UniProtKB/TrEMBL annotation, chains A, B:
Signal peptide: none annotated. Pfam families: LacI, Peripla_BP_3. The lineage of its organism: Bacteria, Bacillati, Actinomycetota, Actinomycetes, Catenulisporales. Residues 18-72 form the HTH lacI-type domain. This is LacI family DNA-binding transcriptional regulator.
Length: 377, 377
DNA sequence: AGCGTTTCCGTAAGCGCTTCCCTGTGCAGC
DNA sequence: GCTGCACAGGGAAGCGCTTACGGAAACGCT
């Protein structure tokens, strides 16, 4: 008689999972009452209420989200879409993969901000990435539209036209993108932040040359930041560099690569390197150290974002703090009002940012109290 | 007569979004045929097929996920739940918040691994965090169960009993947790990894004392790692320290705090500090530098996980590489087989890890003037 | 007591899909 | 020309819930 699992036929749901009918039966009421109790509507009599709740408790009932969504026309889900560097986890070159992957750090924090804000309204996040080489991410994103009440698009997921088309079907908010007639864009104040930072290094420190190590070429944030640095350099009448040779792709490996090539080709290193984000600044600093350059004594380096490790490295990183989580939260909140049927007040919301002066620009001596910097070298 | 929107009563969906009926009408077929075409079932005639696809294209139709899920009993969604340090984004102390938040780095990478694997099967991730102070996360998690086909639980979300209760209703996989009779646990080989690492610093380098800077007290990973270090220390007959004074809470700030107190209280610093993860190791190293200690010359420090920044800091961090993304992918794959109705082969899957020797243990001279491979070893 | 209100709750109609079942058509075989 | 069969595709049921509607019960008032 020991015949466990002889050949049970690949079933979906062996247990026909309990429904609201089961609860109704157990409680001796109608399904309508169960629903009302569960949703706190139209205050049922306390006694009925108790009966239902007891039945729910006893059976361990959890209402099916799909059925609720279908019926109430609200899924309580918003999708978040971002671009991911590589298609496969099992990429051949794991090292390379990791390096690319770390450019996602910023997004992770952003997503967390969205998530926390969403929880407050009882919404959950449907997270989805599209491959950076995906030709038409439109299809994938459309599928998500079917699973959610609204969509938050990170940088560079869809073209402005794609965004418009999507936004006709479902509320859309973009992060660090560009606003369209149908979607709202949320962004940090790149111009003010980068200008302040550039003015600080050029003005306060008086360095005599500067470069912008760029992020992804098609990222609006990147373009704007680079332009800001250039403009400040011109205002100061100082030499400025950027372009294809200065493409750090937002990653530590990318930043290091730029420096490596620079040195190998014997080109001069500018006195200041303004990086598009913190990750690439980390790579730059590390590579400079490797080659025997001192930061900030020989070269000053700055970042952007103020990710948490920025203050835990030596030299600690001078950067521009973006209210990352707040950006995410605001994205959700905006989307939420759109889902509720209101039309958003503005097409774009710009959040203030703030220069954070640490050591890598030359502001603070590295090892404050004691022995000379044992860190760097 | 200019009475635009006199007082339209807060509608949900002004546009009664198109349905499969609209497509059917446009294509001149029945909804059954549309459904069949869309799902590739029972090969309809090419001509019909084209008509339908053209209609879909023309209208920009996207099937409603909730309706599909309700009908087909498959949501194509898995939930991922993790603990989040603080409740509110707008926490008063932003600095503090960030520090806590960076302990989430590991999870983000893990989640990415899950996500990529899920995409391969057409599944999406429903991301949800529970507050670390939440008393009974069971309710929140139960709600998620209603929205998904399976659940992946990070470290310390539910008690083993809670996991069992949940796993009776829906497939559950835990990450770095403990296996139960109904759920599967996926974990890196903490014991082997930590033992190898400890043997390396104690054996190969011959250091004479060691401490374990712990992570969260109730994290299984943390407990096991600490135990491994202790055992190796005992095998070598060397002094070992851990305990409440050595609680780094997995964060850079936590690691720094431990060192700060240690120094302020004038207690001796062990020759080696094995940290529970990379983040806290970063904090430790930074604080040691601040106080004038050299790493690895005065104190050797190691991490765990091999997050990407580990090789972009100076000194680069000796650590144990976990196949983080692979862990996540495996979690999904396992969950997927469970959702498909198969029972998992094992209650627990342990993935191999690997010691990565860099500078912070004393292995490599810091400023390598060389050009070549800055990578692993 | 009689009537109008209000409250509570059951009935049933969907929500937008998938899929079973069955009809209608075209075609091969006799 | 008739029967039998394969197959494309339509009708309709049903997934598990919310909610409009309306009946019954309970209450307040004259």
């Amino acid at each position: 008689m020991t015949d466990e699992e002889i050949h049970l036929p690949h079933v979906r749901k062996p247990v026909p999972s309990l429904t609201i009918y089961d609860v109704a039966r157990t409680a001796g009421v109608s399904i309508a009452s169960v629903s009302r109790v569960l949703n706190g509507h139209s205050t049922p009599r306390p006694e009925t209420r108790d009966r239902v709740l007891r039945a729910v408790q006893e059976l361990g009932f959890v209402p099916d989200g799909a059925a609720r969504a279908l019926s109430s026309r609200l899924k309580e889900v918003v999708s978040v879409v971002f671009r991911r560097p590589r298609a496969e986890t099992q990429a051949a070159d794991a090292e390379e993969f990791d390096d690319e992957a770390d450019s996602l750090f910023f997004m992770d924090v952003l997503n967390r901000g969205i998530e926390v804000a969403a929880q407050l309204e009882g919404f959950d996040l449907l997270l989805s990435s599209v491959d950076v080489h995906e030709h038409s991410p439109g299809g994938k994103v459309a599928k998500l539209a079917g699973k959610s009440d609204g969509i938050i698009l990170h940088d560079r997921v869809l073209t402005p036209n794609g965004v418009i088309r999507l936004a006709d079907r479902i509320p859309v908010v973009t992060l660090a993108g560009t606003p369209t007639r149908a979607s709202v864009n949320i962004v940090g104040d790149n111009v003010a932040g980068m200008r302040d930072l550039a003015k600080h290094v050029l003005g306060d420190h008086g360095y005599d040359s500067i470069a912008y190590l760029s992020g992804h070429g098609d990222s609006p944030d990147n373009l704007i930041r680079g332009k800001a640095v250039r403009e400040v350099a011109e205002e100061f009448g100082l030499p400025f560099e950027d372009g294809p040779n200065w493409s750090g792709e937002y990653s530590a490996a990318g930043g290091a690569r730029v420096i490596r090539r620079l040195i190998e080709e014997g080109r001069p290193i500018p006195r200041v390197i303004c990086c598009a984000n913190d990750q690439s600044a980390l790579g730059v600093i590390n590579e400079l150290h490797r080659r025997g350059y001192r930061v900030p004594d020989d070269v000053a380096v700055t970042g952007f974002d103020d990710i948490s490790v920025a203050r835990h490295v030596s030299p600690s990183l001078t950067t521009v703090r973006q209210p990352i989580e707040r950006l995410g939260a605001l994205a959700f909140e905006t989307l939420y009002t759109m889902i509720s049927g209101e039309r958003p007040a503005e097409r774009q919301i710009v959040l203030p940012v703030q220069v954070v002066q640490r050591s890598s620009c030359g502001c603070r001596p590295e090892t404050a109290p004691a022995v000379g910097a044992p860190s760097v070298r």
